[in-house]
Write a structure and sequence with these properties.
alpha/beta; Rossmann fold; 3 domains; 9 helices; 9 strands; binds nicotinamide-adenine-dinucleotide
């Protein structure tokens, strides 16, 4: 692993066009569970599997139950950025990293100081009324009980992409553009099984694809550099 970290360090030193693409594993060292690790959400027991509760159909049919799960399991408002978030923000400040593309909805990259953050699956910090479109902050969810309501009577929902819903095409297009132009693409803390997000790495045309994960993924063999480790520790060391 030391050799791989030295190579990553050198690639970072030599590049001014790095793009990072990450997932839930980037925030586990901040105390936010991912979905698919052994201690992740998919291994905890609920009346319904998380992908059912977090689906558009379920939300429309059972908003009360959705919000019970969502407030309990999807909001980690005391979580702080870890070494991975901080290092990525630093690299952007130094002009080396052009964008962070994330599947996370926790806002921790921005909290660490990153400016160009493309949130493929939205953010828990943005919410809106489904009837009149009025925008709300996170307080609309945390300071209410049951199903949060707008002053117009409509239901307030989080600006996060639920299962069965499409991704924002502008965010996708911008992500494709950054990845297609990247010199170094660092992919970290994602199981690469949630599509269309995972398919984005197919747009990378360079020869420095770095994969950092504490386990294995089905795309390990495609990486030019594969680092098996915790992303905060790895990025904190380069
Ligand atoms: P996932 O749960 O499917 O996979 C997480 C991956 O990260 C796993 O492969 C795991 O081995 C790896 N991992 C965990 N901790 C790590 C660490 N410290 N260092 C390196 N690797 C680590 O997550 P996903 O691929 O992002 O896809 C699931 C969906 O979950 C996404 O759509 C995302 O929106 C959502 N999600 C987001 C959050 C969040 O915002 N923090 C949390 C849970 C789930």
């Amino acid at each position: 692993m030391d050799d791989a970290i030295s190579t990553l360090r050198r690639w970072i030193q030599e590049s001014d066009n790095i793009v990072f693409f990450g997932g839930a594993g980037v925030s586990t060292e901040s105390g936010i569970p991912d979905f698919r690790s052994t201690d992740g959400l998919y291994h905890q027991k609920y009346d319904y599997p998380p992908e059912t509760i977090l689906s558009h159909t379920f939300f429309m049919k059972n908003p009360e139950e959705f919000y019970r799960f969502y407030r309990d399991k999807m909001l980690f408002l005391d979580a702080q950025p870890n070494a991975a978030h901080r290092r990525l923000a630093e690299l952007e400040k130094q002009g080396k990293l052009k964008a962070v593309i994330t599947q996370n909805i926790d806002g921790l990259h921005q909290a660490a100081g990153s400016k160009k953050v493309l949130e493929l699956h939205g953010s828990v910090h943005r919410n809106y009324c489904m009837k009149c479109g009025k925008k709300y902050g996170i307080e609309a969810i945390t300071e209410s009980q049951g199903v949060p309501r707008c002053s117009c009577g409509g239901i307030i929902r989080p600006d996060v992409v639920l299962y069965e819903e499409g991704l924002d095409s502008t965010v996708i297009q911008e992500s494709v553009m950054y990845i297609a132009r990247a010199d170094v693409l660092i992919v970290g803390g994602t199981s690469l099984v949630v599509y269309p997000a995972a398919g984005l790495i197919d747009y990378y045309r360079g020869s420095k694809l770095v994969l950092i994960n504490k386990g294995s993924t089905h795309l390990d063999s495609r990486a030019d550099l594969h680092i098996n480790g915790k992303i905060g520790e790895v990025l904190g060391a380069v």
